[in-house]
Automatic annotation (TrEMBL):
Residues 27-173 form the F5/8 type C domain. One of its GO terms (cellular component) is membrane. The chain crosses the membrane at residues 1198-1223. Residues 581-633 form the Fibrinogen C-terminal domain. Residues 179-359, 366-543, 790-945, 1003-1168 form the Laminin G domain. Residues 545-582, 946-984 form the EGF-like domain. SUPFAM superfamilies: Concanavalin A-like lectins/glucanases, EGF/Laminin, Fibrinogen C-terminal domain-like, Galactose-binding domain-like. Keywords: Disulfide bond, EGF-like domain, Membrane, Repeat, Signal, Transmembrane, Transmembrane helix. This is Contactin associated protein-like 5a. It comes from Oncorhynchus tshawytscha. Gene3D superfamilies: 2.60.120.1000, 2.60.120.200, Galactose-binding domain-like (2.60.120.260), Laminin (2.10.25.10). Belongs to the neurexin family. It is found in: Membrane. It comes from the Eukaryota.
């Protein structure tokens, strides 16, 4: 069956199931206006006339609404709808005739008036926007309805010139449900009328409320191996489904489809399973997963019965989790059959074991600790009859660290601390300021599940217990009794009298419940009312835990992890990087690799950049004038064909090294593609000579049959010899159609790229005596990259281009070049009803990236130290994701802003995308936009830009910048590791054991930080640690030091060859830890051949390109061997050294007279890394002279010295004398290393580079530098 039919059937199933689950359609009636006074409750009221029952929308009774007392720390207004209702919308007003209104609030719901849950909108946003005046009505239609009896409005913000004032209305309708209660030992059995039930379509829907994280909701199985099981496992819903696959029935490798999490929160969750043949939709609440089942059949065959709520018979085959469900299920439908209704009416096909038909409500009330710095709960330590003390409670959290319990002991200054540390539970007995004892237990207790913890003392022992694990015991020197108070979750401020309590790392951020002290349960209602203990930054009667990895916003298969307030993406092995794994680490084309200075070889390219397609490996041929991308397939050798007919033709399908989608993206991006078809024949025709019908053909990328061969135009059944008018028999359009006994040839090149590549060839005329064909389909070859440069000019202020709406809900990246003389102007803009995105030149030296996704205006700006309206090309890249936003201009440091943890995520645009104002070449989401389909151009816009640099990507190579001149252009190679007129000539030096170059430079701290001005307060700056390094080397020595970057704070990066010649990259970014090492491959690189190295680090992720292959790895700890390699120095040739946007080797050699450069030994300029175009290298002095002659400033002094606002010296040693004295010197300094905080994962200030040796002693510096150096080392 076609995919269209499957989609149609699943859609029909979805409509039917929705109809089954719904009991009404017009669910928007007012529910509050008719409520009695007893249905309104409040945290407090400021007066009788401000009582909560006056809080009805548009009413003016009393004082015109509800207002709490001014001293109320956590005000709330509560509604009792008298029964469970379906709520679809809410509306609010301020207090009539006053200046009191609520501008922001939370909405909580509950079935019992206890155990509240926060309602979250589509983006997971919990905050509702309220009023801006007293009488206006703000209406919110809920993205998904609430089915509950109690609602609570919790004001967050109000009129700063007034106070909280509220009138409300709730809209919805009555909700009817069929409920069954399962006690953990009960189940419902639905028995079929026949022996087995076989279905090709199934719709199963239900809602459940669970008291535990494990339990079977549904199970059925058949003798032939079919089964279906729906169960809770670790708070997630798992569906096991198999159709006619006996291998899976008896194997242990059953795979579940899992969805959602935190489903043991004692609140209702809806489930819908829709199946048609093997296609399945699983929906839990608002999240849906589509998948295809295992097995050989299309029908699900279940024998005898389906069980709900558990599996009644132990040891039944096919079961996966034997724990029965404990909780409530309502509205349980199996293919339209109301199972619970049948059970209530005691129908014979239903067996109900210990099931009741009303939902019992446990009183497990939670408390949320909101702040990781200031939350705490203080409870008195009640007396124990047996002496000692005993404390029990449950907790759940995502954070790997946090204080759970702290108490002072009777023997001061001793105290006990129970905390989560590195995801384990740790008990610490502080005997004095210097003396402590610790025990730990558990693993990954920050998994979001409920965990039970208990702490008790008896005699001279303290016992810690976690869940059902064995207890951990600590021996004491004396009897122990707790002090007056127990602090849960954190400590009060240091100004408190109980200053003994200190948060060891962070306060606890999560949920706690079931507090018991010396066997006495603690009533937290008394705490909330101020009658027991004390608290700060708590939310009572609710657990506010939220799964930030649902849905998973990590792109391209990135793995999501989370803390209480943030989520993180692990991009390991994906080929992508960035906060959400959005950016590809690979270039988009071979042309892009050429511009980075690469030579021919195998490369991974990502033709759609940050799009959904992954990277693929191709061969880049850069030895010709054009850069060819070559994609091979599974049959490139000549193939002989005999015995085929039109009825039984020979068919060969070609499988390429790239997927069809990747091939389409590659072809679309390329300027031209071609594929050679070598076809030789003997008595084998391509076309029937009588009626012209094809006897052989090939199939294009879209699956269409093509009958033109070898270079002729599409749609014409001819071969290349007809086009060239040299066919062996001019009566035919192909040589093979002459049907001779001798070999003929119809070889040609297919070049209509929209039809390429060839996906299949069919040959049908080789069955006659002496008839045969010989063919070979060559690889797909493409050249050019249309996105490298495609520009437009704007000659009027009102000129612009407009495109269809930018699709950028969750992520977008925008990159372009521009040049202008205007002092300001908008590059691009797209708006929605409220949201928008804009990139503009806001002043001659400032580029601003602005957007609003519903959290308020965000401005991210980068300021250049030189004007940007200088009629030269400048590069801009802006990116926005649900995690962060960034902006880069030219080689200025990247600016980051982190998104708020509680805010809207989706950028909702609905108008056209406008582009204009300045000459530019534009790419959005890695897709070329200028010249794209759907483009509308207004007057005053033309394709291309005047000037020689309009194609600067092909004029200046290796990050060189094209500069327009009156009579031509020149290339600024100051930020390139290459030299020469086009930045193509390598800068290479041969070293011997006695030679070295030391390059010291000053990095401008304020420029590196590049703090954005006027940034929104809801976004937080983020200085992500990253480096880019590249160089070429050739040596036969190992071990050897290749590159080092080091700072005065004893951080360093080192690239070495180990004893076996393998490459190792060392990172020592934490001076109080052992270094991390990345050892990508065991093969030796000390082989006398040229090797090109590129290294990119972002946080803990390292991406390495050795010659032409990328490798990813996360750093691991190893013993230090850097000094052993350094002691051997380096003998060989180094070339084209680049660190971030600096080229220190070239800068050092061009500035030998500078005090920042020290040269030892004999250096020989060489040509060890000659580029593929065989350009002749010239001495550096000649290059400098040639550059000066062309009036181009290399700005080496600016790069080296910079604008000094906070001087931090970093030394680069280009390599190679490392004596034993230096080794011992480094060892001595390591022993006195300065401790740094663990969260510092970047090199100090951003720094440089290369070829390492060591940081010079302070005595080698000038007076001012010496003082600064000593200050840093002190």
């Amino acid at each position: 069956m076609s995919s269209l039919a499957i989609a149609f059937n699943l859609t029909v199933l979805g409509v039917l199931s929705t109809a089954l689950a719904a009991s009404h359609y017009n669910c928007d009636g007012p529910l509050v206006s008719n409520l009695l006074q007893a249905s309104f409750e409040k945290s407090s009221q400021s007066s009788i006339s401000n009582a909560p029952h006056f809080a009805k929308l548009n009413r003016r009774d009393g004082a015109g609404g509800w207002s709490p007392q001014v001293t109320d720390r956590q005000p709330w207004l509560q509604l009792d709808l008298r029964d469970r209702m379906e709520v679809t919308a809410v509306a609010t007003q301020g207090r009539y005739g006053g200046s009191d209104w609520v501008s922001g609030y939370l909405l909580l719901f509950s079935d019992t008036g206890r155990a509240w849950k926060q309602y979250r909108q589509e983006d997971g946003v919990g905050r509702f926007v309220g009023n801006v005046n007293a009488d206006g009505v703000v209406h919110h239609k809920l993205s998904h309805s609430i089915r509950s009896r109690f609602l609570r409005f919790v004001p967050l913000d109000w009129n700063p010139s007034g106070w909280v004032g509220l009138r409300v209305e709730v809209y919805g309708c009555a909700y009817k449900s069929y409920v069954a209660d399962f006690d953990g030992r009960s189940s419902l059995l639905y028995r079929f009328n026949q022996k087995s039930m076989s279905t090709v379509k199934d719709v199963i829907s239900l809602s459940f409320k669970s008291r535990q994280a494990e339990g079977v909701l549904l199970h059925g199985e058949g003798q032939r191996g079919d089964y279906i099981t729906l169960e809770l496992h670790r708070g997630r819903l798992a569906l096991y489904l198999n159709l006619d696959d006996t291998r899976l029935r008896f194997s242990s490798g059953r795979v579940a489809v899992t969805l959602s999490s935190l489903l043991d929160d004692q609140h209702w969750h809806s489930v819908l399973i829709e199946r048609f043949n093997k296609q399945v939709n699983l929906t839990v609440d608002t999240h849906t997963q589509h998948f295809r089942t295992k097995g050989e059949g299309d029908s699900l065959e279940v024998d005898y019965e389906l069980s709900f709520g558990g599996i009644p018979l132990p040891g039944k085959p096919g079961t996966f989790l034997r724990k029965n469900f404990h909780g409530c299920i309502e509205n349980l439908y199996y293919n339209g059959i109301n199972i619970i209704d049948l059970a209530k009416r005691r129908k014979p096909q239903i067996y109900s074991g210990n099931v009741t038909f009303s939902c019992s409500e446990p009183q497990l009330v939670s408390t949320t600790f909101l702040s990781s710095s200031s939350s705490f709960l203080s409870l008195p330590a009640t007396l124990s009859a047996s002496g000692g003390f005993a404390v029990r409670f449950q907790f759940r959290t995502w954070n790997p660290d946090g204080l759970l319990l702290s108490t002072r002991l009777a023997l001061e200054p001793q105290r006990l601390e129970l905390q989560i540390s590195n995801s384990r539970l740790r008990l610490t007995h502080h005997m004095s300021a210097q003396q402590k004892e610790e025990v730990s237990t558990g693993h990954r207790v920050n998994d979001g599940l409920w965990h039970s913890a208990s702490l008790s003392s008896r005699g001279l022992q303290v016992t810690m217990t976690l869940d059902n694990e064995p207890s951990s015991t600590m021996e004491l020197g004396d009897h122990m009794e707790a002090g007056d108070s127990l602090y849960f979750g954190g400590c009060p401020s240091s100004s408190s009298s109980d200053s003994y309590c200190e948060n060891p790392t962070l306060a606890f951020q999560g949920c706690m419940r079931l507090f018991s002290i010396n066997s006495q349960p603690m009533d937290l209602n008394l705490v909330h009312q101020g009658r027991l203990g004390d608290y700060k930054e708590l939310q009572f009667d609710t657990c506010g835990i939220h799964d930030r990895c649902l849905p998973n916003f990590c792109e391209h298969g990135g793995q999501c992890s989370q803390s209480w307030s943030h989520f993180y993406c692990d991009c390991s092995g994906t080929g992508y990087t960035g906060a959400t794994c959005h950016n590809s680490i690979y270039e988009a084309s071979c042309e892009a690799y050429r511009l980075t200075g690469s030579s021919s070889g195998l490369f991974s390219i990502d033709p759609d950049g940050s799009g959904p397609l992954g990277p693929t490996q191709v061969y880049c041929n850069m030895t010709e004038n054009k850069v060819w991308t070559v994609v091979i397939h599974n049959s490139t050798d000549p193939v002989r064909v005999q015995g085929s007919t039109l009825q039984k033709p020979y068919i060969m399908k070609f499988n390429y090294s790239a997927s069809p989608e990747q091939l389409m993206a590659l072809v679309a991006r390329s300027e031209q593609c071609q594929q050679e078809v070598v076809y030789s024949c003997r008595k084998s025709r391509l076309f029937n000579t009588w009626d012209g019908s094809p006897l052989s053909w090939w199939v294009d990328q879209g699956g269409e049959r093509r009958t033109y061969w070898g270079g002729f135009l599409p749609g014409v059944q001819q071969c290349s010899c007809s086009l060239e008018e040299n066919c062996m028999d001019m009566n035919y359009f192909c040589n093979c159609d002459a049907d001779t006994d001798s070999w003929a040839n119809d070889t040609g090149v297919l070049s209509y790229k929209e039809h390429l590549p060839v996906s299949e060839i069919v040959i049908g005329d080789t069955n006659r005596t002496g008839s045969e064909a010989l063919y070979r389909i060559g690889p797909l070859r493409c050249y050019g990259d249309k996105s490298v440069w495609n520009a437009a000019s704007f000659y009027q202020e009102s000129s612009y281009l407009h495109f269809p709406t930018l699709q950028a809900e969750l992520s977008a990246d925008i990159s372009f070049y521009f040049k202008t003389s205007a002092p300001s102007g908008v590059f691009l803009e797209n708006v929605g009803l409220k949201d928008f995105i804009r990139v503009e030149l806001s002043s001659p030296s400032v580029v601003t990236f602005s957007f609003d996704v519903g959290n308020g205006l965000v401005d991210l700006a980068v300021k250049s130290h030189v004007p940007l309206n200088d009629r030269q090309w400048h590069y801009v890249r802006a990116e926005r994701s649900v995690k962060e936003a960034s902006l880069q201009v030219d080689q200025l440091p990247l600016r980051f802003l982190e998104a708020p943890s509680e805010g809207h995520l989706r950028l909702r645009l609905n108008s056209q995308l406008f582009v204009g104002r300045t000459g530019l070449s534009l790419s959005l989401n890695s897709q070329l936009f200028v010249g794209r389909t759907g483009l509308i151009m207004t007057p005053g816009v033309s394709a291309g830009c005047p000037g020689h640099c309009s194609g600067s990507s092909s004029l200046c190579h290796n990050s060189g910048r094209c500069i327009e001149k009156n009579s031509g252009y020149v290339c600024d190679c100051s930020q390139s590791a290459y030299g020469g007129p086009s930045c193509k000539e390598e800068v290479s030096v041969s070293f011997n054991r006695e030679s070295s170059v030391t390059y010291t430079f000053q990095e401008p701290f304020s420029v590196m930080q590049n703090r954005s001005f006027q940034a929104s307060s809801v976004y937080r700056g983020n200085s992500r640690a990253r480096e880019n390094m590249a160089f070429i080397f050739m040596t036969t020595q190992s071990p050897a030091m290749l590159l080092t970057v080091s700072t005065f704070s004893q951080q360093y990066i080192a690239v070495i060859l180990a004893r076996n010649g393998s490459l190792q990259i060392w990172y020592h970014l934490h001076v109080d830890r052992r270094p991390d090492v990345f050892s990508p491959r065991p093969s030796s690189l000390a082989d006398g051949h040229l090797h090109r190295i590129r290294i990119h680090r972002e946080g803990k992720d390292v991406y390495l390109q050795v010659s032409n292959g990328y490798i990813y790895k996360r750093c691991e700890n190893f013993d230090e061997e850097v000094m052993q390699a350094g002691s051997k120095g380096f003998i060989g040739c180094l070339s084209s050294v680049q660190f971030n946007h600096m080229a220190p080797l070239k800068a050092a050699l061009l500035n030998r007279g500078s005090s920042l450069v020290s040269v030892r030994g004999h250096l020989v300029e060489s040509n060890c890394g000659a580029p593929a175009d065989s350009t002749t290298s010239h001495p550096l002095s000649d290059q400098a002279a040639k550059t000066n002659k062309d009036n181009v400033s290399l700005h080496d002094s600016a790069v080296i010295g910079g604008v000094v606002s906070a001087v931090i010296f970093i030394t680069l040693c280009v390599v190679v004398v490392m004596t034993r004295f230096l080794y011992q010197h480094r060892q001595a300094r390591r022993d006195t290393s300065i401790k740094e905080k663990e969260h510092q994962t970047n090199l100090e200030i951003a720094s440089t580079i290369l070829m390492v040796i060591t940081v010079p002693r302070c005595s080698a510096l000038g007076m001012v530098e010496k003082a600064q150096c000593k200050g840093l080392l002190r």
